[in-house]
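Fill-in record for Translation initiation factor 2 subunit alpha.
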Amino acid sequence: MVSISDTKKLPELGEIVIVTVKEVTGHGAYVTLDEYDNLTAFLHISEIATGWIRNIERYVKPKQKTVLKVIRVNPTRSEVDLSLKQVTGEEKKSKIIEVKKDEKGANFMDIIKTKLGYDLNQIKEIEEKIAQKYDFIYDAFEAVAIKGPDVLASLDLKPEVIEAIEAESKKIQIPHIEVRALLEITVRKGNGIDIIKNVLSSVEGSKNNSKVDITYVGAPRYRITVTAENFKIAEKALNQAIEKIKTSIEKNSGTFKFLREESKKTHTNI
């Protein structure tokens, strides 16, 4: 174990941390904790992977950044031990997202500081107000990108600050979920094609944070695509559109079938 200065803050037991590998030895690796002023901690070889390890550098290399879990903290002696093998895939993913949010949020606030000519105390005050509602500064910018600046109305921010946040939020690519289905529609009437076109047009467009698009595949098939900020909203909009189409087509003595297709993540703006 590695001794760390008593005057420096230590991480908590079980905490997931980002580290930079400092030195690899035959019995483990010395790393620095990125979020704790680069304090040094230790990753023992037994906590790198299960089974026998022929070459430690297959798992960790000098200067590499990685995600580890705190498995022992001795406040009295200021010692910290870490584990790689105890970190789950979900924990690693969540930590990386957290770090990226922190970095992006800090970058946005630096831009606003320069743009508005604010000092550090003014920026800190803004961050404290944002923290009343959001876990991460970046989350406020993302919320504005998705729903507009009205989401900040309760935070008592100056108009110039809200305007600056809105301007920076436009740089964010909002991920959206896309759900699709293949429709088979027939209406055996003289004006059947017009009926189908009118029914499909009635469900197209943007509504309730979702967007519905319908494309012609080839008689009698059409593809309906719904894009929304998350799967729940997209799925609800798709089901409502399909039900409306089905009811309208059957009222006109037509036939209606649909087949769900694979959903996917996109960066399409609604």
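KEY FINDING: The two ends are 53 Å apart (CA to CA).
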